[in-house]
Design brief:
The protein has 173 residues and is mainly α. The protein has one domain. 61% of the residues lie in helices and 7% in strands. The chain has a two-stranded antiparallel ribbon. The two termini are 29 Å apart. Keywords: Membrane, Transmembrane, Transmembrane helix.
Length: 173
């Protein structure tokens, strides 16, 4: 493979890295526990899809609320586990022994923040599904709506900005 020659470095997570990882999994666990405690009080049909305005457009059995965690936990854990192998990531520049540690640190930090943002999205969605299910209102709250939109934009634009910033810094050196 083309990255066989990349240095394999045992990166030690920084305090920030550990904090982000703990926060990420903590959010998912708290949202899961919240859903567990609220599950029996949910109606048989709950909203499972919301349009761009935040209005519920599809209702399913309340058992479908678990799909958030069936999808969310493996995705988040997969990103966490993948951070153990930064030499397998794609990079916008050639990885050498001189730049490997810095590049790997930036890449794993970016992956951690992507995981955190995805955990926030899953958490807000699950809380809003429970909240909307228990009320006559068929819309997610405006605050949650804006949070989800902002997180999706950050998740989309953030990595691109990070790559462009890195390439710009590389040209200066």
């Amino acid at each position: 493979m083309f990255f066989d020659n990349r240095p394999k470095i045992d990166l030690k997570p920084t305090k920030l890295d550990r904090y982000v990882d703990i926060t990420t999994f903590g959010l998912l666990i708290l949202a899961f526990l919240y859903t567990c405690f609220q599950y029996n009080s949910l109606p048989e049909l709950i909203p499972m899809h919301f349009n761009f305005d935040g209005t519920a457009t599809r209702y399913d059995s309340k058992d479908m609320i678990w799909i958030i965690y069936i999808i969310g936990f493996p995705i988040i854990y997969g990103g966490y586990y993948l951070n153990k192998f930064p030499h397998l990531f794609n990079y916008p520049t050639k990885i050498t022994a001189e730049n490997a540690k810095t590049m790997y640190q930036h890449a794993t930090r970016l992956m951690r923040f992507i995981n955190l943002i995805m955990a926030l999205i899953f958490t807000v969605l699950s809380i809003e599904i429970v909240r909307v299910s228990k009320q006559d209102n068929q819309q997610i709250s405006q605050v949650a709506h804006y949070i989800i939109i902002a997180l999706v934009v950050i998740l989309t634009v953030g990595p691109l900005v990070s790559i462009l910033w890195h390439l710009k810094a590389k040209k200066r050196n």
